[in-house]
Write a structure and sequence with these properties.
Strand order of the largest sheet: 5-4-1-6-7
Radius of gyration: 19 Å
Number of strands: 7
Largest sheet: 5 strands, parallel
Strand content: 5-15%
Helix content: 40-55%
Shape: elongated
Order of helices and strands: HEEEHEHEHEHEH
Distance between the termini: 42 Å
């Protein structure tokens, strides 16, 4: 009986390990890719705060956003994230403050401050992009064509390296054409986040619609 139980556990573990290795390979591949095209909108995904201050993870994302924004002065940045437990302000507000303090003009920053997870970050950011596009259309004189953008509808996703695969996957699922800018995760927390993210990928694939 004991040997049969062990064999049963092994039979279940092997497919799980194969799936884990496959997903982790996708995460690592995306984490080491980087797009640098000029786009109209870049979505900067939120992470936790300590009171009003960005966490280590969020700071790496914001530093990557600052670098990208300086290289592409016409891009608009959508900062995303609501106010979670233990946070004194929304993640989006903290992110805007950080970007402004690092020289990014406030007029380039749009806030999405309602989301509680990555899927909502994407959905609500897409709504902001659509609303901005409608406003631009309202100001185009009748008979005139709206100017083409350089990015053909693409958006830049700026997030942690381990998070980029899932973020781009969800962006595609919700009708966006994502490019990616990965922010490097400190080594001392990287292993934990990679393992956790593999489980989150499975959850997003099945439930995040």
């Amino acid at each position: 009986m004991k040997s049969k139980l062990i064999k049963g556990i092994v039979v279940l573990l092997i497919p799980g390990m194969i799936l884990f290795i496959f997903i982790e390979g996708l995460i690592v591949w995306e984490a080491h890719s980087e797009d640098d095209e000029a786009v109209e909108y870049a979505i900067v995904l939120g992470a936790g705060l300590r009171g009003e201050e960005p966490s280590v993870t969020l700071k790496t994302r914001l530093d990557q956003a600052v670098e990208y924004a300086r290289e592409h002065p016409n891009v608009k940045l959508i900062v995303t994230g609501g106010q979670g437990a233990g946070e004194l302000i929304s993640e989006a507000e903290a992110m805007k403050r950080y970007l402004v303090a690092h020289g990014i003009e406030p007029g380039r920053i749009l806030k999405e401050d309602q989301a509680t997870n990555t899927m909502e970050n994407i959905i609500f950011s897409r709504k902001i992009i659509e609303e901005m596009s409608e406003k631009v259309g309202e100001h185009v004189p009748a008979g005139d064509e709206q100017p083409d953008t350089d990015n053909n509808g693409q958006v830049m996703i700026i997030t942690s390296d381990y998070h980029l695969f899932r973020a781009k996957f969800l962006a595609q699922r919700h009708g966006l054409e994502p490019l990616g800018q990965p922010a490097e995760t400190p080594f001392f927390i990287s292993v934990y986040y990679h393992i956790r993210e593999s489980l989150a990928v499975v959850k997003s694939f099945v439930w995040d619609r």
